[in-house]
Amino acid sequence: MAWRPELQSLRIELRPRALKINNCMDYVEALHQELSNVNAQDDRAFLQLERKFGRMRRLHMQRRSFTIQNIPGFWVTAFRNHPQLSLRISSQDEDMMRYMINLEVEELKHPTAGCKFKFIFQSNPYFRNEGLVKEYERRSSAPVAYIHRNQEGNTISSFFNWSSDHSLLEFGRIAEIVKGELWALQRNSGCTTTACGKSQILQVPV
């Protein structure tokens, strides 16, 4: 069967076009390789900067934490003045928090792990733990070892039950507040827009 002139012409035109497509694919592949190299360099540079500034940040946070530990009533005041958390804090919770000297928040490396909260206390008459630990999203935590229980032998009703009770529907919201606002409170020298207002400094009793 003889090719019609128009079909033969179309066949001839397709050959150089195919070569152009192959050239484009080769070029795209080369660009992809170059981009991969750039990304690798970027990752290395980022890790170097992260380590450098991470060390600097940890040093400043350690100094700030040490300073806060010497301010009587800092954390009980921060929790009590928060418009949402204060609703969950009883007078007994306030007494417990007077022994709280530090709050630590540690970002966990695994992307789905979330973060770890650690509430640090002085020796106190309420529980034996030196620190209460809560890992958010993994839903694992250290139980609160109360020294005293109520008359029925049950755990005392307290704000700190949040650190070990995952049945609370709002536990995720509490975690977000503690990390994003109270932890930021420490980083921002005792002031947040939610708890203190834009220009109001946290007032700590002397």
TrEMBL record:
Coiled coil: none annotated. Pfam families: NAP. One of its GO terms (cellular component) is nucleus. GO terms for biological process: nucleosome assembly. InterPro entries: NAP-like_sf, NAP_family. It comes from the Eukaryota. Belongs to the nucleosome assembly protein (NAP) family. PANTHER family: TESTIS-SPECIFIC Y-ENCODED PROTEIN (PTHR11875). This is Uncharacterized protein. It comes from Castor canadensis (American beaver).
